[in-house]
# Entry
Amino acid sequence: MDFNDSPQEAAFRAEVRAWMAKNAAEYASPPATPWSEAQIVALGRKWLKRKADAGYATITWPKAVGGRGGTAMEEVIFRQEERKYVLPDGPFLSIGVNMACPAIRRHGSPEQYQRFAPLTLSGDIVWCQLFSEPAAGSDLGGVRTRAVREGDNWIVNGQKVWNSWAHHADWAILLARTDPGAPKHKGLTFFVLDMRTPGVEARPIRQITGRTDFNETFLSDVVIPDSCRIGEVGEGWAVAMTVLMNERAGPRDKDGLVLRLIERARSAERPGGTALDSAQVRTTLARLYAEEQGVKYFGYRLLTSLSKGEPPSPAVAMIKLTQTHYAQLANAYAMDLDDFAGLFETPERPHQDQIFFEYLYQQGLRIAGGADEVLRNQIAERVLGMPQEMRADKDVPFDQIPR
Amino acid sequence: MNFDLSDEQKMLKDQVSRMLLDRAPPARLRELIDAGQDWDPDLWRALADMGLLGAAIPAEYGGLGLGEIDLCVIAGEIGRAVAPVPFFSSICLAAEAIRLAGSAAQKARWLPGLASGEVVGCLAVNEGRGFAGDRLEAAVSGDRLSGVKWPVSDAGVADIAVVVAVENGRTVLGLVDLQGPGVTCERLKGFDELRPHHRLAFSDAAFEAMTEADAAQVLKALYDRAAVYVAFEQIGGAEACLWMARDYALERRVFGRKLASYQAVKHNLADLYVYCELARSNAYWAAWAMETGSDQLPAAAASARVSATWAHEQAARENLQTHGGVGFTWAADCHFHYRRARLLALNVGAEEVWADRLVGALAGGDAR
Ligand SMILES: Cc1cc2nc3c(=O)[nH]c(=O)nc-3n(C[C@H](O)[C@H](O)[C@H](O)COP(=O)(O)OP(=O)(O)OC[C@H]3O[C@@H](n4cnc5c(N)ncnc54)[C@H](O)[C@@H]3O)c2cc1C
# Structure
């Protein structure tokens, strides 16, 4: 066991630090006025391009496809250094880099990959994910959006929903049904879709945070050329699984949340001292810290096994499950520490709205990208070897499943 | 960075695990409890023969001279099997205390015996309620010790005790030969009878001081280390519970299907898996910090302790619950862990104590 950087890793870290100091200087502290959505997207494109030009956009990919040919450990080191800055980032970048491109690479043709990967890495196209529908979320295999073949094209009709940043996206990854007579997971096909195609309409939906960064997306007689089909007809589920696997592997370290909470406790007055003097407060903080650190080190253990060439573990599901668990509680506790006053933004608590936002947002993360219950099923079935859920829709043609 | 056990450590883990499965099966545990035995001396000898007792004791003192991580690996397997041996008392407490604070002569005198298993040691700190170092009454005057220590684990089979006492208002650490005059030992009635605890009464017993260094500091370090060893023991126990529950749920059928196919059971066990892995991850961090002498040890040890206690207690309870009525019987094995989880949750200090130490370490101050 060795927890320090190897000499090679230390050298890489030093290189990244120097590069960041030079190239991310303007992001060393939060922007004076919060970025608008359009600004984040514009700055995000530039930031990704800057990384891509230096070979940092996709560290583990081969050089031939715009990567750096680096190790998973180097990827982590880069992210750790990146986290010291406040960077313009969002799903519009990660869906492209971490979800769309790997899926195209694995299931698409080399020409398709050449067509999309470089433009994605240069920030010229940003992506959204058109998977979920009103009647298909956790049960994603239930998508009803129809794609019908017409010569060299597909005509697509349906409604997608909860599509993050779709109103800013250039392209989308799309899961649609091409054979309603086949069993649920067998009648699906995967496409990439130019969001400027006539008949595509993304309508932003207001979220509990007050922001409007996800959408319902209507597809009316949308024409998609067959050259934008990724994988075989009827093989869409396998492509979608590649996307979901990468999505669930996604969440990053959130180190430091509990240390900030300790500082809050230290400044929360109590008769004769501060909240940090209370055994009850210390116990709560200690539990949160043990969870925060535990999941961070669990991530390092997975990484160690990946770097030894072992296959990715389905236990990765516990990372998001745990991170959202303690982060939701920690943000609630940040309010608790100030008692009733914790629910208000005042001159003494000028940044309280960030706590409000985080507390709201963590609830969304418990649902998006595999809800808690779905992740627990994944752990039980794929890690502990327990039976799959009983299901009423197996081997039944999709159009005969009771609605 | 390489955040995993080495291949040799994995082999060690398998080897110990297989040996304990073979020599300390649950039937043997029931036998020992029914007979009111303090320990299993044959098993102790077997561990000694494999060199495991001296794993972390330097070669010059008759040990294998491996690192602390190896000792953690062994502790984990002891926990998995609920092995009835004074490993924690003799090796993780007494031998560690002598390694940390003994003079060269004391190390030469005691460590070889501890490594070979011929000598069994224990640590006498507590005086009823109260954690290491609080309000001690046991007093040393000259080279004589008087006072009462309880609970002391495995004192009934120990030859020597490392004792913490006060001398002129100062905390001191020393060695007492338990066979010598002025020592009486009485077994307590405890919650986990598979690891006996005792009351040691000293009346002008011979006391050999151990260190010139500040004993309170030594104790703090000793407890950080002890917390890591116990964390591994707890995690071994928690994993045993998780897999026992999983196996039972796969076998048992209710309402026409496997118990393991019910989501309530699946999610319960998935949560236990998460607790085990969080605890194991913190424990690796702590074991690494201990072996490399990192200044992160206090925070790492306390994190490991807090998460391992949670994992073990939850796993012990939910394992028994998953078994239904049969889990409540003496003949089933759930109760060994159900009791042991409570013992290990308190034996080096309750959660409140470690939460305090953890926040103290993080907030840049000491514990309150
Ligand atoms: C902030 C946010 C961003 C999102 N971004 C996108 C995006 O960009 N693109 C996209 O396509 N989608 C996106 N989603 C949608 C997300 O993937 C779905 O919301 C999610 O998969 C859950 O589906 P659902 O909303 O239909 O809820 P349901 O699947 O109906 O779930 C409702 C509840 O039932 C539980 N449940 C479901 N199945 C089971 C089961 N088998 N056993 C036990 N409990 C179960 C769930 O865990 C949940 O608690 C986003 C969602 C959120 C909140």
Observations:
- Chain A has a mean pLDDT of 94.
